Structure formats: structure tokens, C-alpha cells
Amino acid sequence: MTSLLTWTPGQSTTTFTHSSEPLVLPQKSGPKRAFPELCKDITPSCHLNPLLFNGHLQTMWTAVNKAAPAVHYKRRVFASEESNFKGHFTVDFAVAAPPRSGTAEDDGPEDQGLREDPMGVGHTRLPPRTTYFTDKEFEHLSSEDTKPLLITLHGLSGGSYEVYLRHVIEPLIRASTGESSEQGLSGGEWEALVVNSRGCAGSKITSSILYNARATWDVRQVVKWARQTWPNRPLYGIGYSLGANILTNYLGEEGENCLLDAAVIVSNPWKLEVSNLALKRTWLGSEVYSKTMGNNMRNLFETHKEEILKNKSLSEEKILQLKYLYEFDRAVQCATWGYPTETAYYRDASSTDSVLSIRIPTFCLHARDDPIASDEAVPYEEIQQTPWVVMCATAGGGHLAWYELSGGRWHAKPIVQFLKQMQADVDFSKIDRKVGIAAKGPQGGHQTPFAFDPMRRKAHVPGSEAQH
């Protein structure tokens, strides 16, 4: 772990955690480059708003300050291809700003376009600046272009409209001053889409099954679809909070066969049981954060209860009386997925061990004063055992906050720069994905007949070879 910065008012120290035998990245031109050095070079000094001087103030300010660049989306409803996770989910594709038709609910511009789902599934509401693809538009998405595509997973009960992810997407898709021969949907140098968790962002649930922290089927389907639709595009992934946990699990499940070239993990709660205990330990954690997240999930249930209550093991009366997130997980997630307790669910769905199966360059961002994704839940030791993952931890920043004095969000700077640097300089075709960690303990140590499988899960479909 290497300290980079000295403290001044509003400045947050930054540390990096990585393997002592780091991944070496082949460059498109020039000498090879160590992965941790690239991450350090693209990470600017972290200057935060000195008035928001701790993680609580930073985090709570996200409920007040909703300023963010406008991102416009076209939506498509996908039918799940996973027999054990039936239903529908939505994907929102970032597009160039269409003609304006009025003012959106957040006082930004509203878009002209199709406001009824051509698939017939529909929505409970459409987020601002979101319309549907027509069938014809969607059928003509396929192309041979080489524009990089960012696939995004949002946080718990969020969606494509979230401020923190728009701060990252907008500078990537912003139209360049020069003319591009590959205009695409966004009109900029990058393309981007957001996979909305089921029932989130105004989407409709069409089965009794909600998503959970290790439900990777939808993102896997979208990544495969993107590869088939755009065979020449470099694919990148980014996940925030619960979406970061899901994405980390996906990366571990895919291993060296992952179709993504690189990924970014932001404010991951990692060890879910540890993060839950940390929340329950303090009044703010319990009565503010856990209660707020519990309310959000209860509201999600109320919106979709007609479908969810087709699971006859659920009690509407009990669910509507829940206050905290762990109570919701106990009452709903356990009954849905077959876990005996919420702590069993947390242990099984945690992404800590998944780190050890990742085989693509992965940049992690975390604030050590995050009151929701607790610092004690971060797998610092595991990250030091793999060359594929680098953790950048700032002393301040809260949960998905990182507010600067200007009102900007610091996290967007290293993330955008990382993605652009990887795309511009790294020759992914020359990376050996078989480079990993010793399966039987630390290299050079005692040789044991036992092997550690980081992706061995407890909850699975009996008789199924694959546990994801």
C-alpha cells in the first residue's frame, strides 16, 4: 500500500493496494507498463469540499445536490434467457440529445420520442430524458464499428438516471469537436448503456423474482448480446455499490473467458455481512442508512407487489412493516432464493473471493470513510494476492459522493481517465489471461493437495453443473 499525497484542507490522501508482482500491460506502441503504475498515473489529487469533511456529510449531500450533466437514453426491454431467472429487464442506451419536447420532472429537458414500450411490457414510469427504441431502430443497431462500449450497473434500487453514473457517462459520450466516421448512438467517442436491475428505473417486474447481490444473469446476457451485436467493439464494465458487487461476481464467474476487456468497481460493499454489521453498530448506520435503503426496497416491493406476491411464501403484511434493509433481505430475499438467514445470503453473495478469479484489468475505487460500504469489508489482503486488481482508496469521499468544492464529483476524473487510457494505449490481444494466483496457497509455499475455489457457491440449482 503506497501513500501518495500529503494533507491540506480539502485534500484527501490516496493509497493504492495491489500485488507485489503486478500485471504488465502490453502497449499498442512503446514499452510495457505495470498495471498499478498506470492506475497511479491517471489518478489526480483528490481535493474534496472542506465543508463536507467526513463520510456522513459527503454521503448525505447526495440527497441534496442532484446537479449532474444530462444524459439521454433510449430503452429496450429484454426477455431473460435464464430459465431459473425468468422475466424481463430493461437496458438504457445513451444517445445524442434528441429534439426537446418540454421539461422533465428534474427540471431538465424532456425528449421527443416513443413513450410506449413496443415489446408490450411497459413501465411504471419513464425516467427523465428516456424514451423507447422503435422496433426498427433496435433492429438496425448492429454494426462493425470499433467504438468502445461501457456497460454500467447501478446501485441498490437505482437506475440509469443516477447522478453518480451520469458524471462518468457524459464526458465519455460527449461529442468531439472533430468529425467522426463512427457516429453511433451517442455521437461521441464512446458508447454507453446501463443495465437496470429488475423493477428499477421505472421498469416492470414480470415474475415473482427480484434481483439480488449475486444475480449476474442479466449482465451476462447483455454482454453476450453486445458482443454479437458489435463484434469489433472493445467492451468495458463499471459497477457502483450493489452493482459493483454484482459486477465483481460476474467477473469472477467468467474468469479468463470474460468478454469485457477491463472493468471499474466503485464503492463496493464487498463482504456484505461485515458491511451490514457495521451499519447496525451505529445510530446513523441503523436509523439513517439501513432504514433509508430498507424504505427504498419496501417501496420497490409496493410498486411491484402484484407480481412479487405470486411467491406465496411472502407475507405482504410483514413486508410492509419492515424498517431496515436486513429485515427486507430476511423477509424477501431469503424466501425468494432459498437462504435460511440474511447472513447466509450475505456470505454467499459477497464478492470478496470473486476477486481471486478475475482475469481482466480491474480498477477499484473506494472511500475509506464510506459509511455504507465499510472499509473493514474491503478485501485488501485478497487484492494483494492477484495481479489483475488495483484498489485506489481515498481517505474521504463517503458513499458514491466525492464532492469537490466546485460541486463536481472527483470519482469521475480517475474513472474516465482510466477508461480512456486503457482504450488508447493497451493492446488487450497480447494479455495472457492465464496469469493468476497459486491455487494451492502462496507461491513458493507448502504444496498441499487442497485447492481453493473462490467461485464455489452454496446456493445453486441441485443437479446443475454451473453454480452461476
TrEMBL record:
InterPro entries: AB_hydrolase_1, AB_hydrolase_4_sf, AB_hydrolase_fold, ABHD4. It catalyses: an aliphatic alcohol + acetyl-CoA = an acetyl ester + CoA. The keyword Lipid metabolism does not apply. Residues 1-20 have a biased composition (Polar residues). Pfam families: Abhydrolase_1. It comes from the Eukaryota. Residues 148-401 form the AB hydrolase-1 domain. Its EC number is 2.3.1.84. The active site is at residues 241, 370, 399. Displays enzymatic activity both for medium-chain fatty acid (MCFA) ethyl ester synthesis and hydrolysis (esterase activity). MCFA are toxic for yeast and this enzyme could thus be involved in their detoxification by esterification. Belongs to the AB hydrolase superfamily. AB hydrolase 4 family. This is alcohol O-acetyltransferase.
